[in-house]
Amino acid sequence: MAVVVLDFGSQYTQLIARRLRELRTFSVILPGSSPWEHVLAHKPQALVLSGSPASLTDPHAPRPDLRLWSSHLPILGICYGMHLLVQVHGGEVVPAWVREYGRAQLTYAQGPLFSGVSTPFTVWMSHGDTVRQVPPGWKVEASTSDCPVAALSSPDRRMFGVQFHPEVAHTEHGQAILERFLDWAGVDRSWTPENIAHELAREVRDRVGRDRVILAASGGVDSSVLALLLVQGGVEHRAVFVDHGLLRLGEREEVEQALRGLGVQLHVVDASARFLTALKGLVDPEAKRGAIGATFINVFREQAARLGHFRFLAQGTLYPDVIESAGSQGAAKIKSHHNVGGLPAELGFELVEPLRWLFKDEVRALGRVLGLPDSICLRHPFPGPGLAVRILGEVTPEVLDIARRVDHEFIHALREHGLYSEVWQALAVVTPLRSVGVAGDERKYGYVVALRAVTSQDGMTADWARLPHDFLDGVAARITRRVPEVGRVVYDITSKPPATIEWE
Q1: pLDDT tens digit sequence for 88-131
Q2: Residue 72 annotated in active site
Q3: Quick check: 312 and 211 in contact, CB under 8 A?
Q4: pLDDT digits (tens, 9 = 90+) for 141-154
Q5: I need a surface site. Which of 39, 212, 249, 443 has the fewest CB within 10 A?
Q6: Catalytic one among 79, 338, 353, 504?
Q7: Considering 100, 141, 167, 179, which one is annotated as catalytic?
Q8: Nearest CA among 440, 442, 430 for reference residue 485
Q9: What stretches of 244-287 adopt beta strand conformation (E)?
Q10: How far is 271 from 294, CA to CA, in rounded Å?
Q11: Distance between alpha carbon 220 and the CA centroid of its chain, in Å?
Q12: Is 165 a catalytic residue?
């Protein structure tokens, strides 16, 4: 059972889903034009209609399946979603005389959504249309000085609409308003890590039965949590950890110790020489990714054959992976290295992806429940191609060694200063540039290294971390002193978008 969020192109849609999950309610995002059968497949308890950059004054504006309106499910329409509610029930939506963008003061509010909340309070607006005529029988429940209909309802039809965005942090009491809707709609509020662990382990066990499962263990939190779910579900499995030689310093040993200690049937393969051979002479980022992916598939296929017959392949695919890899209708393909759609059909496995509806922070919470050590559970995301995408240009043993040592110094400095948990992801990039410098009394040319640290909730968007200047000064000195091949250290202050978190 879920609250289904129908997305009509709003930049805030993922925030809606996250806010609902913070209220212990499972939510799933579907394209706004999804066939009603796709919506029903998620056993919806309520629906949320998102905002949109579109206008209902445009005849080609997106609209949901008409069967939605006769479903009798509780509905909350946000901004454009409210306009849909108004138009389909006989009201009128027109271009606003005064468009509202940014903060506004809600000067009047009443009704179930605003119970216990006193006005005035700040809300976040982003609209160019407004409601001129309320549908027959509907009640106006909130307004601003420039927006007479900032919220309305039809309790008999179990529908609410708000012109503002309660999911945005700038809206005061926004989370309380969403909670009032869930309570009024009678939505289940049992989305907790403990319940998730139990339910997902049961789902995997029911799906797999007595067949065997193989999975690729990367050492990251996603595949590690997936391995523990198989253990908890009593599923016969083998976790194959392929050491491609592109790992961080000491990472292989740490992963082996942690997973084997928790009952994971781990099989380790050292294929580092094979991967370096495949990468030789490659400079283009996508060529490097392609070589790593193809080599991994070949190694994985060989190891699976040696370990016996497996019907299922388990993957630690997450919800942002699905979205960014165009796993949902209308999504843009941003990354080519995610699991989604990346494995050839001829591998012959049936996929098991129990984490595909979870965000990263939810997987971390699940890992803690399953007993995963914090050293892995709280580890920053690390790309599948490893340090290869943190070396701009050809991956050689020499540059790989530099990248590994620089990464080690940066990450350990963050830990020593209590900053590691303050950022979502931190990384070091070795560029092909050489910069003039002075070592002692000698002139030399050393590598230029870029440090990057970002803050984020799920990696879909990110801001550069405002690390203290004294820390950056110290870590630059530390790197140039302990990794003498490096002559200059710079810090990346680009957010996502327009940049991605990784450089390649």
Answers
A1: 999 999 988 777 788 999 998 999 999 999 889 999 998 889 99
A2: no
A3: yes
A4: 999 988 999 999 99
A5: 443
A6: 79
A7: 167
A8: 430
A9: 266-270
A10: 13
A11: 15
A12: yes
